[in-house]
Request: fold
Amino acid sequence: MPENIDHLIGTVYFGLFALAALLCSAGLLMSRHPLNGAVYLIGVMLSISGIYALLGSPFLGVIQILVYAGAIMMLVVFVIMVLNQAQDHRVPRFDRYSILGALMPLALLAAVVQALHAQPMPVDPHALRGDIAAIAPAMFDLSAMPGHDGHGYYLLFELIGVLLLVAVVAAVMLAKRTLESTETPGGAMAEAHGATHDGH
Amino acid sequence: MAKVVARPNLTFWEKIYFVEIFKGLATTFGHAKKSLVEADHFKTLNYPDVPPDLPRDYRARHRLMKRPDGTPRCVACFMCSTACPARCINIVAEESPDHHIEKRPAKFEIDLLLCVFCGFCVEACPCDAIRMDTRQAVLAGDNRRDFVVGRERMMDWDPKDYPLEDIQSQKAPGGSLHAKALEEFKSGTYH
Amino acid sequence: MTAIDPFHVQLLAALLFTLGLMVVLARRNIFLVLMGVELMLNAVNLSFVGFSQQLPGAQSLWGQLTPLFTIAIAAAEACVGLAMVICITRGKDTVDSDAFADMKE
Amino acid sequence: MTFKPVPAAVTPDNSMGDAFITTRVDAVINWGRRNSLWPFPFGTACCAIEFMGVVSSMFDISRFGAELVRFSPRQADLIIIAGTVTYKQAPVLRRIYEQMCEPKWVISAGACATSGGFYDCYCTVPGIDEIIPVDIYIAGCPPRPEAFLEAIVQLQNKIERENRVEQKAVGA
Amino acid sequence: MDAPGTFATSAPASGPTPPGPTYFDTVYPLTVLILLGLAIPTLLMTVNIFASRWVHGTRNSNPGKLEPYESGLPVSVGSSGEKFSIRFYLIAMLFLAFDIEVAFLYPWAYQFKSGGWEMVWLLVVFLVLLEVGYLYLYKKGALDWE
Amino acid sequence: MTSVGGVPYHSSKNDIVDTAKPWMREAMKPGLTDEQLVSALQLFGLRRDTKDRWNLTLVLAAGDARSKLRDLVSFLRDDQSLRMNTLLDISAIDYLSYPNHRGPRFALVYLFKSLEFRHRVMIKVEVEEDDARLPSIHDLYRIADWTEREVWDQMGIVFTGHPNLKRILNHHEFVGHPLRKDYPCQKRQKLSINDPMVDQLEARLRELGYTVVESGEVHLGKPIAAKHQSAAEQGQVDRPRAKSEGAIGAGGL
Amino acid sequence: MSVIEWIQAHPYQIAGLILPIAIPLILFQVLPLLVLLERRGAGFIQDRAGPNRAYIPAPFIKRIRGFGIIYTMTDLVKLVFKENFVPPFAFKSFYWAAPAIPVATGLLTPALLPWFAPIPFVNSAHQLAWLNGTLITSNSGLLLLFALGSLTVYGVVLGSWSSNSKYSLLGGMRASAMMISYEVSMGLSVLGMLLIVGSFSLTDIVEWQGSHTWGIIVQPVGFALFLVSMFAECNRNPFDVAEGESEIVGGFHTEYAGVKFMMFMTGEYLHVLVASALLATIYCGGYQLLPIPGYDTAWVKANLGLVLAILLVPTGALLLFAASLVNGRRSHYAKTNSVDRDLRLREYGVYVAAFAGLGLMMLAGAVAAFMFLKTSSVGAPGRELLYPGWVNIVTAVVQFHIVIGKTLFFALIFIWVRWTLPRFRYDQIMALGWKVMLNIALVNLLVTAILAKAIK
Amino acid sequence: MKVLTRANEPQDLMTVNIGPSHPATHGTLRIFAALDGETIEAAACEMGYLHRGFEKMVEQGTYTMVLPYTDRLNYCSAMINNIGFCKAVEKMFNVTVPERCITLRVVLMELSRIIDHMVCVCTNLVDLGALTNFWYFFNTREEVYKIWEKLCGQRLTNTVTRIGGMYRDAYVGFEDDVRKVLTRIEASVAEVRGLVEHNKIFIDRTKDVCVVSAAEAISYGWTGPCLRASGVDRDLRKDEPYYGYETYQFDTVVGTTGDTFDRIMIRMYEILESVSICRQGLDRLKPGPVNTADARLSLPDRDHVYHDMEALINSFKLIYEGVRPPPGECYDAVEAANGELGFHIVSDGGTNPYRIKVRPPCFTQYAAFGGMLEGEMLADAAATLGSINIIAGELDR
Ligand code: SF4
Ligand code: SF4
Ligand code: SF4
Reply:
């Protein structure tokens, strides 16, 4: 009984989220202005995070909102606003070639679905629920440190640090030229040379 | 010698914001506390319910003084309208039936929307016929025409409202004490 | 807990991936292209999580950790990618990806 | 216009009481509007300084719920023109008035705004009603803060009298 | 509805996590709240639309009203569609970097108690790496606004 | 404002230096007497203005003005004993209806003051009506930029060499110069729409060393209508002002 | 099983169904109070009366002015009937949606906060179950909270973008850049607390504070940082550059009117409320009464009478004090020659009576609770199940009020600070966030980590 | 707007109008600025939105009629304007007003200076976001207004002087009222200083913001507090004393840097100096006439007008013709709250002034404003505009 209700809820909500995700990504495909696209993409992210939660990895869902929807998309939105002239000027949003380009992936899709269909996909009943209580130990299982044995992603953790460092530096290097050009040597009011000769 | 404005040299405690913020909060809290606790700490006037308390000689709406017989004291001499920088006094003179007085105002209008309440008209009048001591300084309305006040409205006042209906004004030409005052003046006993 | 058919998850992931690819291929606006890439990454993540359910015990967490790192990488990608966009579009008035052809030089 | 030192503005009225009992929407709207007049202070000159006086503790415009001064015309219900309006300023005033959202009311404060005052010359607008319609005029140069309050009270009474049902009937 | 897990969670600090809550536990309040969050604004705005139409009619707009507010001036130069300072991008990028850092520190903080000093070292290395990037930006003046 | 004395307007933002010279903090030094001032300025051929019996006003005749004004002003500013480092104001006078006035129609009075010595001088420059031009001194005193604009706006005297001689008090659609005696006081001129001022901003940008590639697009709103309907309908607007002249006529003295 | 029977058999389940609706609605009730505090409080700080004239007519009192709270209603009425203005621009949907975002997130976040300690109960299957004080039970509740917070920014961004006005855009850029900047400090500053507690569930954090001590004592620096970040997140003075009136008119909501503008305002006050609640929860013990270890929920349950007395006495005293204040105003009015003097006197008289009566009732209740409510005989600490259900429920209600009380205290500080301080300049805010707060937060984190290990 | 910087880099500037109807610009000033992000790269200032034709209007009436117009020049301290104008006309007549009038004028000028500074400082603080200070100063200012209501029957536009004297003598109890208000002023200044002077937020907002060097200030012809903020110790009351200012004990206040902080603090200090001058003036206030006996200037006594033909005729003459200064041109200045307020009066010997040119102290400061802003932040525009105290009535006339 309750299991059934739960099952029903799970199915219904998965359906809702999946529908939302698909609609939003279709919206992204058709959007006239990148900001529209960005908002659609945020919709996709939120739906996917809901699906993560339904699939038993709430931590990932939260991170999805926090980082993807909250930070990455924020960056994208910011850049769209900073550049501010990102209107897609082409009046038909797609030309003939790009429609071809759009159709090609469909073939790929068919192949993938075909392959997936052939595969039985049993759910393992012992799969762990990926909330923070499970993820954190998995990530920092320090029994993997020298002298211990086990698994852990502590190295990856540090690697993320390196990655971020590299990304930040690279991004600044790229933007450096523009950054410097905006540093105008403004001045407070200069001394009025020659305007008044006040004693010397 | 000149005082020099000290440059702000903040101490460590001032630099970390919080101490000064607390001091500021204490100041504002002091005011809030007083306003709450002391019944008459804040001096807010309860305007429409409590009338404004203006000094008697506040430059407010004009009134025209009356002779003892109730006619306007004004002799239509145009001094006030000449002195008026806003040119808002409109007088039409006519012959006065009283042969002692040459003229009288057939029309005496002040456009209060033009008036700048400088009081020059009062100062100019040679017979104290126009005054601005009605204490009606709150003049608002939704129709322009209401603001053009004529002779009747300016004379529509009650002596009771002017308890100090001062002797001095009555000694002015047209006032009830004028004749007596004139005599005193000539005999040098005027005060 | 396990109400959802893994096949449906994979199907959704594949659909999303396809849509993302379509965006990348069909749209000219560089922002949309970048967002298409993000969408594809998301689809892959979803796929990971979907598959992770089929692994037992602690192994199931692998499939959930991988997207975590993918997100970090996506972030780095977005950082650098957008920096490039800014770098290039300055002085130009377009974000049409065709206009970036001269980047190769 | 009231000329008594105590304006007869606050005679306790029963209309509100009836309104509430009969729940006439109109009356509720008017009640809401008259007590929530957010002003846009279009202060240009000396009168604006006196308008600041209205905000001060002594007079305290906030008692009427009108202290939420909005500098965006979109959010304001009431524009108080305090000060001289010159021809250079006129298009600005007009534009701000246009940009205010309905319902909107105008108080024209002081000799200059209502009639140009004693600036009867080449550059001043002789009364802002050449540019925008005015609801309440205030005389004075500058008007006393009480006069601003009185104008608000009068405006409140005016709003009180607004009757949309009749207006609709007339309009249709 | 009588399942053992209904509305339940583990008592605070009472042993290992039991099987997680059911869908219903999370989904119900979330759904209610989201609906509430959507309903209140929607309701108010809808009322506003009809009230506005009823009270003011539909045509009270003039060309001036539709233009953006520019300190009351009827003239404006350029539009709001102009480019912004590149610094906003840098801020957002920095935010992204640190947000990810914080996001990865969350599991670390969760795990902190069960680890030993290694956890501290992990943090130190991680922070040093980030600090390098931060200092680089600092040097480059990306954090200054003038 | 162009560069002053060849130095770009801005120096570095960060060098906030205390530019105080010693005299700025001391009491004012006694200045020259009027006679000394007159003799110091002898070589410019100035004569003392008889109209001014309270201050020292020296007249620069219309013939000399064009050629000597700038030299005179620089001399006033730079001379060690004069140091008239402040230009207080330029006030323009239209002598059109001045009784018994002989000479050029306009005069400009430059008010100079020294902050170092306690002396002031006013230089009255005569300007002919049919050729109302004077050299600009905006590069000698920065304030002159705006005061000259004001004089031009109000009196219609052209300052040659001024970079931005535009109206300052009146609106940009104004025709005529209101302070001239022949401009009727009540001749109103309406403004339909405000000045976008792009040109001024661009000029300023250019002075600061920028090159304007593409100036902003100017949106002009709807010019305002002459008279608002509702006010006109109510007939509340046109009320003639009481005329004081009429009053005098009727009343008599 | 009839419906009534079912309801009787499942009181806790019913509560679980109702609470998600009830708690946000209760919070909505607090909003007018906040607005009142803001407007009237500002008045008192500035030595003036503040809004006090609008009234609702009522039979006996004649005019209910409610100390100005009526103005919240009039504002609502007015805004709802204000013209529905939408600027002509391509992004109309954003313009409509943007104001709803802060409201929606502001309504969601309270669901993650613990409003009372989990209530144990035995369900119909005779198993131990817990009714949680949070609406959404999650062991990463805090993260979800931050995630929602990061979504709030979109309201500002989209609203400013779609307004098509330069002031809006400037304000929106300012606001969003500021908010994301302080999100970093916020996340980092709270990490210290998290690693000490070792859990992301806010209930756990509060329970930890009950068994140890309040967060503000173990993490003072973290608290200060978090407080400042919260001010920035809420766009409140001294961080209110986004709507810095003297600079950019109204900021991101310059072009908003009517209900949509009200949404932004509601969102702002909701966020003040949520921020205050967060501060109270993470650093000030949430529903815990005292910052002393051992005086936790179990103690409260054991000494419910005492606790009630402790809480009721000051409340009653406060009400009596309020009555005396109102009486002071009343006698002040009695002396004036105001036209509406009699009306005011009558109204104030009613208030005085009401306050005094309530206050006295509270005091009496306190005495009664102290004398007659002896729960320690019924149960014992640590054996919660021995308590009868009403003890649990009373405790929950008491704890809910404690949280609300603390929240209001912090909200008051938000308001109080607004009327005291000048605002920062935009670049100073960014510098403060990125150069000062960030580094302090990192150092704080490091020191906390080291200390935590060293002490252990 | 697209530009190339000096380094020939392309840059996009956003143009934005600050004002005229903008909270920071008091409704009458317009700053058209090109922004890079938050930084103002270039600014063009416009004025004239309150150009009311003062100089044309005064030519239409008599000299006495000019007085109400002078009220409305700097409406924050109308009395200084009245006194300045009367002083200039009296200079043309070569008359000195009676001792009591002079002392009274000094007291009134200083009180006006105080409230002018108070309005300036508190509106400036409001622009900085510190709202409550507004009320703390305005409440005190209201008390000064109460005195003025009693003194001359108006709050703001006092028209308190007449050529050759005063509108009327001070009322009984004037001194006590002023003394009381002076204490109140000191208290509120102390309070506001307590709230801001050491507050780091305030200091960060104002210190080293929009610095104006002394040389620059001089070249722009600055006078008054703003010039003193730049470190030039010049004050007409000390340098060219009038009305016996040299006999009062007071200090001028100078700044060191010329930034917004100095400009605000100078005003705070000067309020205290003025309080001290006021006290000294009150000590010297002796009974006596307030108007000159010169029949060319003063209206005769009311009683005489009523009863004496000669006085009546004189009164007629003075009303119809006003005072008639000898033909000539005269410049005279007083130290107003903002700096040197000068009147350049041209008289043709007739009843109306031939030409009056006001030398408004604000004008010079506003002329410099655009340059001051460049390179500063948008928010500084509001903070600085407040600190240079632009009064549009006097700026645009
Ligand atoms: S008060 Fe002044 S403006 Fe008014 S009528 Fe009298 S003279 Fe004219
Ligand atoms: S009021 Fe006085 S001044 Fe005016 S016309 Fe009458 S008598 Fe003459
Ligand atoms: S009406 Fe008087 S106070 Fe008001 S702006 Fe005009 S001149 Fe100034």
Observations:
- The beta strands of chain D are 39-43, 78-82, 105-109, 136-138.
- The two ends of chain D are 32 Å apart (CA to CA).
- The helical segments of chain D are 15-22, 25-34, 46-55, 90-99, 110-115, 145-161, 164-171.
- The mean pLDDT of chain D is 77.
